[in-house]
Specification:
By secondary structure, this protein is α+β, with helices and mostly antiparallel strands. 28% of the residues lie in helices and 31% in strands. Strands 7-6-3-4-5-10-1-2-9-8 form a 10-stranded mixed β-sheet, sandwiched between helices. Helix 2 packs parallel to helix 3. The longest helix is centred in the first third of the chain and has 18 residues. It is elongated.
């Protein structure tokens, strides 16, 4: 197995983010590997989180993408970290078209999201018809995103998995991000499990692989070194927001009639900003007049 560095990870690189999927020919393992450097960097740029949160934000984004790709590729999946003592939340919002966005929300009294008792990771996916499936794990004893994701997969999905996600920073800038998931399938034998367990025991950390400039396919091939496998596909990944002027106007419908009436009577254009991408939208109050009509 070779893990010689290909090149030093650089923040100026803009290669296409992607996820690759494979299964061993003996149906013992399914593996996903993703490089998400640009996606994470763009989300961090839009959110401008505290330095202390950048790596955690990146890890959650990568992990949410991998959970969606593994368990629910045709559904929207959100990963949410909630800090203890109401110290804030981190949200990763991954969609079937390969786009992902993120949100970091810290209250005025908090300079960082606290881990420990009361901190949680929630993974939530939106099923067809709008029904939600979610699972929650505690971050009381570990703030490691990879470990939390493995616990979630085992407890909420009943799927044994090995997961490693990482975000590498330099001078407070994201220079690389990515991760992998090795899913144990029902036909797995004890001998096959022993081989993979030994492989992962000596396998370089994802952070090391990222710093060495490895791409998603190389990581996958190294994970499955010596094991015949079939590549199941590959898809591009990128940062993109789902906001629109129409959705902004629709959000104002949650106001009561008196509040909407006051906005219409005032006549001053309303400027609203998307929490995810920070794009500003200007709404003409006349666009709200129809909301005052009796239904």
């Amino acid at each position: 197995m070779s893990t010689e560095p290909k090149s030093e990870a650089k923040s100026t690189a803009r290669s296409i983010d992607r996820v690759v999927r494979a299964m061993t020919d003996d149906a013992s393992f399914r593996v996903m590997s993703a490089i998400t450097t640009n996606t994470v960097a763009d989300i961090v740029k839009a959110q401008n989180p505290p330095q202390s949160e950048i790596e955690r934000v990146g890890g959650l984004i990568v992990g949410t993408i991998l959970v969606r790709e593994t368990m629910s590729p045709s559904n929207r999946v959100q990963g949410i970290i909630r800090g203890s003592n109401a110290t804030g939340t981190i949200v990763a919002d991954s969609h079937p078209d390969g786009t992902t966005r993120g949100l970091v929300n810290l209250p005025a009294h908090a300079s960082a999201i606290e881990m420990g008792k009361g901190a949680t990771l929630t993974m939530m996916r939106t099923l067809h018809g709008g029904k939600l499936h979610q699972g929650l794990v505690s971050l009381e004893h570990s703030s490691d995103v990879s470990q939390a994701l493995m616990t979630y997969m085992l407890e909420s999905e009943q799927v044994k998995s090995m997961i490693d996600v990482a975000c590498v920073t330099r001078d407070n800038q994201v220079v690389a991000a990515g991760g992998y998931i090795v899913q144990l399938l029902p036909d797995l034998t004890d001998s096959q499990l022993a081989i993979m367990t030994e492989r992962l025991a000596d396998f370089p950390s994802m952070a090391h692989l990222l710093e060495s400039g490895q791409d998603a396919m190389h990581v996958l091939e190294e994970l499955l070194y010596g094991m015949p496998f079939t590549q199941l596909g590959a898809s591009p990944l990128r940062f993109a927001c789902k906001c629109s002027h129409m959705r902004v106007v629709a959000s104002l419908a949650t106001l009561n009639r008196e509040e909407i009436g006051a906005l219409v009577a005032d006549g001053t254009p309303i400027t609203l900003s998307c929490d995810f991408c920070r794009k500003d939208f200007i709404v003409n109050p006349e666009q709200l007049r129809g909301m005052l009509c009796e239904s």
